[in-house]
Design brief:
96 residues; two-stranded antiparallel ribbon; 2 strands; globular; DUF7545
């Protein structure tokens, strides 16, 4: 049975935008709370993905990450903890 789809428009401060269409049922499954909005679920997923990618670049990439990349990771992980109320390490069980 095909799921209904939901489309999100993502707009950035620089004027760029993108659209993303995903199965609505997937968002229902991923919601932490019954009344959590689809937009919140997608926002959570976006931040989790960003945190995973910057963490991978800093700690699992080839060579030294450098101070700039480490500062970006630190800022990202701070925002992660603000949003989720726990650290990336606590949420994922992956700590360095």
């Amino acid at each position: 049975m095909a799921s209904d789809e939901i489309t999100f428009t993502i707009e950035a401060d620089d004027g760029s935008s993108d659209e993303l269409t995903v199965p609505a049922d997937m968002l229902d499954l991923l919601a932490e709370e019954e009344d959590e909005s689809s937009a919140t679920v997608v926002g959570d997923l976006a931040l989790i993905s960003c945190a995973q990618r910057i963490h991978g670049a800093v700690h699992h990439g080839h060579g030294e990450a450098g101070e700039e990349l480490e500062a970006i990771e630190e800022e990202t992980l701070d925002r992660f903890e603000e949003r989720f109320g726990q650290s990336f390490a606590e949420m994922t069980g992956h700590d360095h």
